[in-house]
Amino acid sequence: MVLKMKTYNHNWAVRFFTLWVGQALSLLGSQLVQFAIIWYLTQTTRSATTLAIASMMGLLPQVLLSPFIGTWVDRGNRRLILIAADATVAAATLVLVFLFASGFILIWHIYLALFIRAVAGGFHQSAFGASVVLLVPKEQLARVQGFNQALYGGLNIISAPLGAYLLSVIPMQAILGIDVGTALLAIAILLFIQIPQPESRSQTQATFWQDFKAGFRYIITWRGLVILLGLVMVINFFFSATEPLTPLLITNHFQGDAQKLGWWLSSFAAGTVLGGLILGAWGGFKRKIVTAQIGLILTGLSTVVVGIVPADLFWVGLAANSVIGLLLPIINGSFGATLQATIAPEMQGRVFAFILSAAMLVSPIALMIAGPFADAFGIQLWFLIAGISCTLMGIFGFFSGDVMRMENKSDQEAQHVVTEPS
């Protein structure tokens, strides 16, 4: 079947950024809750196993359920899915509010709430991502992606200290209540915002499994997208382990203390905000895939610097780390804009969910390998290999005609034709 897209570009900025502000506040509330819960578990149990299980409760739904969630999103009304997701988060958090207030809270209650919130978050992320292309003109997608990346970086800077401050002045249930309030505010805004739906001219209704298989087939038959996904998985394999290894890089290699670690993390977060704002103002090169590939090469080279810098040149490593932080939102935003502009709107929920699941699937494997590797051969060597791999993937992308042609109008139109389910 051939599907067409209905878009509302008139006054798009007012409509989109009204929705964006509501979702940003909801995200802030969620990050405050995430910080508060992790700190509560840390102080209460002092158990690494408990924290690992809590992390898995947030990770597993994204890895295992994302492809199915994406299919549901593409079959449903995206605005109603966003409302239901925010309402589910609010309900799960409200239960925790009553449990903390009554003093009957147990660890498994928190695990269950984290799992439910993660499932709802998966629906929310997929539905919101698939809605952006229906609300924002194609030529503005990269700028919007830049503002999104700046938002995430800004929240990473303020959520932890704000959460720590709130924990010192108000009880746990009050912090949880903030998240309930921000979720309800996001719902209220959604009630007044119309999100266009892809319209189908098909007279037949595909089943869930037909839609699921169509999403998978859409990816594997698009050579450029398969190659791009492979590049992302290779890079994510190495870089997903660099963050947990960073404290050891500071203490073992640079002989640093908590203050140096704070400078390192803050420089990265500040770079992320700046990079997002730069992309938001600039929009990248006309061909967004070129912006992303150049960013990959520069990120790889900066990571190589981190991997070879001597211990007495901490500030050189710090500068390279800031550059990495600045480049990542430009890369992610440009890749995101490329995919949003080229993937058929009616397929975006499924395709983005498949990509997210595949990209995250390599992270647990990398973490299992990186620890013993760093213990045996040194932490810097892992950063060096990560930087070299990122540089090579960026160069390879430039030499891949399938990747570089992804934004071509002819390729895009070809991909927007989906065969009738049999």
Task: Summarize the helices and strands and which ones pair or pack.
Elements: E1 3-5, H1 12-45, H2 48-75, H3 78-102, H4 107-135, H5 141-169, H6 172-190, E2 198-200, H7 208-220, H8 223-239, H9 242-253, H10 258-282, H11 288-308, H12 314-342, H13 348-377, H14 379-399, H15 401-404, H16 409-415
Helix pairs in contact: 1-2, 1-4, 1-5, 1-6, 2-4, 2-7, 2-13, 3-4, 3-6, 4-13, 5-10, 5-12, 8-13, 8-14, 9-14, 10-12, 11-12, 11-14, 13-14
Strand content: under 5%
Text of the CATH class of the largest domain: Mainly Alpha
Determine the mean pLDDT. Answer: 85
Low-confidence stretches are 1-8, 409-414, 416-422
How many beta-strand elements? 2
Give the second-level CATH assignment, the architecture of the largest domain: Up-down Bundle
Structural class: mainly alpha
Strand order in the largest sheet = 1-2
The helical percent reads: over 70%
Q: Termini distance?
A: 11 Å
Order of helices and strands: EHHHHHHEHHHHHHHHHH
Q: Write out the CATH superfamily name of the largest domain.
A: MFS general substrate transporter like domains
Overall 3D geometry? Answer: globular
Number of helices: 16
Q: Provide the domain count.
A: 2
CA-based gyration radius: 22 Å
